[in-house]
Design a protein that fits this description.
single chain, alpha/beta, TIM Barrel, two-stranded parallel ribbon, 11 strands, about 45% helix, about 15% strand, Luciferase-like_dom, oxidoreductase activity, LLM class F420-dependent oxidoreductase
């Protein structure tokens, strides 16, 4: 088993773990993206990770993220070793505490994360092969001390700059950023606002983070102001989207993962066009 941190490349793709059939995984890889992030709390068996790895040759696959409340650490550790023995060095385990509104037994998420990391240590999952979902300073510091870095979700380049200052230059900082390939800003907001509003603008870990970044309660209410939606969802042509993603790199990100909206649509055109613009 290699304990080296995987090379994620500069840009990756974030998509729900149920929405990446083999042909889409291969398109992502051949388009030049370095990592495929599987979101939506994949179960502890991590078969979705294995299927994407089986369908591809060299792209890294990461979880964004495994939810510590729904996937037991010993089972996740077993899955990690199964996958790593088959695809050495190509899997990065992202874990996180989710949000309190979604999980009845959600209590003291920081302590639960620490306990989960302890269990992963016991299960032999190397520190260099895992990252944490982190928004606030406390969990970002935990990411720096107990993992290879952080995978913040629903953030801005301003947050990336703050996270980089906490993590330091040698850790993974891989923010997710939503994109809509649509040049009409009104149409783009019509696509981007619903998946941001529901559920994230009603979840306090996200809203607290947005308030730390300077957005008022009024801007967060009622589906989010245009200013907020434009900050969280890059839109325009492929060049405009590529410029927005690069802002995270300028702010200190080591890797940026784009999340094409709408979630249920065919993202192939977006992936291809943005990849070309990023080159």
């Amino acid at each position: 088993m290699t304990t080296d941190t995987p090379d994620l490349g500069t840009f990756g793709i974030w998509r729900h773990f149920s929405g990446i059939p083999p042909e889409l995984a291969r398109l992502i890889e051949t388009s030049g993206y370095g990592t495929i992030w599987l979101g939506g709390s994949p179960p502890a068996d991590l078969t979705s990770v294995e299927e994407v790895l089986d369908a591809t040759e060299s792209v890294i696959v990461a979880t964004g993220i495994v939810n510590i409340w729904s996937a037991a650490a010993p089972a996740v550790a077993e899955s990690f070793h199964r996958i790593d023995s088959k695809h050495p060095g190509r899997f990065l385990l992202g874990i996180g505490a989710g949000h309190p509104e979604a999980t009845q037994e959600y209590q003291k998420p920081y302590d639960a994360l620490v306990g989960y990391l302890d269990a992963l240590d016991e299960g032999g999952v190397p520190v260099e092969r895992r990252v944490l979902a982190a928004l606030g300073p406390k969990v970002l510091k935990l990411s720096a001390s107990r993992s290879a870095g952080a995978h913040p979700y629903l953030t801005t380049p301003e947050h990336t700059a703050e996270a980089h200052a906490i993590l330091g230059p040698d850790k993974i900082l891989a923010p997710e950023h939503k994109v809509v390939l649509e040049s009409d800003p009104v149409k783009a907001r019509e696509i981007g606002r619903p998946p941001v509003n529901n559920p994230y603008l009603h979840l306090r870990n996200y809203t607290n983070n947005l308030k730390r970044l300077g957005y008022s309660e009024e801007e967060i209410a009622d589906g989010g102001s245009d200013r907020l939606i434009d900050a969280l969802v890059a839109h325009g042509d492929a060049d405009s989207i590529a410029d927005r993603l690069r802002q995270h790199l300028h702010a200190g990100a080591s890797h940026v993962t784009l999340h094409s909206l709408p979630d249920g649509g065919d993202p192939s055109q977006t992936y291809r066009e943005v990849a070309a613009a990023l080159r």
